[in-house]
Design a protein that fits this description.
By secondary structure, the protein is an alpha+beta fold. It contains six helices and four strands. The longest helix has 12 residues. The protein starts with 5 loop residues before the first strand and ends with a helix. 15% of the residues are buried.
Length: 131
């Protein structure tokens, strides 16, 4: 029997001065291969089942301002905090030095049952469509 998956809130601050580099590797977060050989291969989606996530900001943009991204946040399923950290090490933002690995927070969370559903089945369907 597989070990139980638990939900974790993951806060991943960026290193200082990496916004330009972050934006240059951003396309590879979701599609690591060139378009001609592309398959859905997001490390965190496959290994951790990232439920949701996105960029953290200094502030919401006003008018035509660009995003002032200062990190990432995600809600993910994993067996343990150690599994989360191991998978983060395989992410392109980690490998490219975007995230400040000394400041990462992995926080166990629990949401009401009414807000939960079978994410494993959802992921299997998404991967089937994208491959």
């Amino acid at each position: 029997m597989a070990a139980a998956k638990h939900e974790f809130l993951i806060i991943l601050p960026d290193n200082a001065g990496v916004l330009e580099k972050r934006m240059s590797v951003r396309p590879y977060v979701y599609f690591p291969q060139p378009p001609s050989t592309r398959t859905w291969n997001n490390t965190l989606l496959k290994a951790l089942l990232s439920i949701t996530g996105g960029a953290t900001l200094d502030a919401h943009p006003v008018a035509d301002e660009g995003l002032k991204i200062n990190g990432s946040v995600m809600l993910a399923l994993a067996e343990s905090k150690e599994e989360v950290l191991e998978q983060i090490k395989n992410d392109v933002y980690c490998k490219e030095g975007i995230w400040d690995m000394d400041k990462i927070q992995v926080i166990p969370v629990s949401r009401p049952v009414a807000l939960q559903f079978d994410y494993k089945k959802l992921l299997e369907k998404v991967l089937m469509i994208c491959e």
